[in-house]
Design brief:
Layout (H helix, E strand, L loop, with lengths): L6 H17 L4 H18 L5 H12 L2 H21 L1
Helix pairs in contact: 1-4, 2-3, 2-4
Length: 86
Amino acid sequence: MSVLENFDSWKQFLANRLEQAQAQGMSQQTISQVAYEVGDYLAKSVDAKNSEEAVLRELWNAASKEEQQAIANSMVKLVQNEANNG
């Protein structure tokens, strides 16, 4: 099963990658930029595998670049918060 088929698996995948990036000393600004690039790629190139991803894609496509950056930052915060509370 692909990590994209289940939203919880996707969030766990993101949390693991975020933890690795932070352990390697990647700055929050760089993480934010990478999150934006991943979000943009997914919205343009990957079919949504579940309803949560479909909503995120619709929001992404309706948003300005600044709003897309905010969406990406929010996903980073979501997985950070879940990692800290889990």
